[in-house]
Design the sequence.
């Protein structure tokens, strides 16, 4: 009975937090990608103090968490907790051709994300880096092989040589998201921790799991007919 009461109380907090149009707009904005409070304020034309108030309510309800940028440590990004929103319809993205995942060195996160997208959707995908390394990180290749994904160990590329005007560009790296501008500006941002900094099998496995969850969330928005 205690578990049932706790579950009802948690659900009530969630519904109460979503009962305000401004908070629902913030949740919609975070459904497919992460954003800083300032980016939310700009996107929704909302005063920053009002964004801070609504983010506090959403955080207390367990709908949103804050993470520190790995690039500019003064910045904070907001992430949605999707497990609390299983019944919320995913926003649709139209006019998407190819999906391109971008990080700094194109040696781990972007490579894994592109491989996951191709495996999950059978759709076109590519990856690139703002400062591409000479090869894919060996641990990234290893984790890909453990999950039956294909990665070319030498297949890195610069973002300027890969991105086309009709691509859906997704930054899976805080530095790439903060550094790219104009035509190369990512449409979505996934604040995935850099496994290379830790350089353990566990860190790469964690990055894989994070990316796999995000790909699964994005796929129905890009491919509405996807049965999986």
Sequence:
């Amino acid at each position: 009975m205690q578990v049932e009461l706790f579950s009802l109380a948690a659900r009530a907090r969630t519904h109460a937090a979503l009962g305000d149009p401004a908070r629902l707009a913030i949740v919609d904005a975070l459904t497919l990608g992460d954003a800083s409070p300032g980016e939310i304020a700009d996107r929704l034309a909302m005063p920053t103090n009002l964004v801070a108030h609504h983010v506090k309510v959403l955080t207390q309800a367990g709908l949103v968490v804050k993470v520190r940028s790995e690039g500019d440590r003064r910045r904070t990004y907001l992430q949605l907790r999707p497990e609390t929103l299983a019944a919320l319809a995913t926003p649709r993205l139209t006019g998407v051709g190819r999906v391109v995942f971008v990080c700094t060195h194109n040696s781990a996160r972007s490579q894994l994300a592109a491989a996951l997208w191709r495996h999950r959707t059978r759709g076109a995908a590519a990856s690139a880096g703002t400062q591409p390394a000479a090869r894919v990180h060996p641990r990234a290749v290893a984790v890909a092989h453990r999950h039956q994904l294909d990665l070319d160990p030498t297949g890195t590329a610069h973002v300027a040589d890969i991105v086309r005007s009709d691509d859906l560009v997704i930054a899976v790296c805080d530095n790439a998201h903060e550094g790219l501008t104009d035509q190369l500006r990512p449409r979505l941002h996934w604040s995935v921790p850099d496994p290379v900094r830790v350089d353990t099998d566990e860190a790469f496995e964690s990055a894989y799991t994070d990316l796999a969850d995000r790909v699964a969330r994005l796929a129905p928005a890009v491919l509405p007919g996807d049965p999986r």
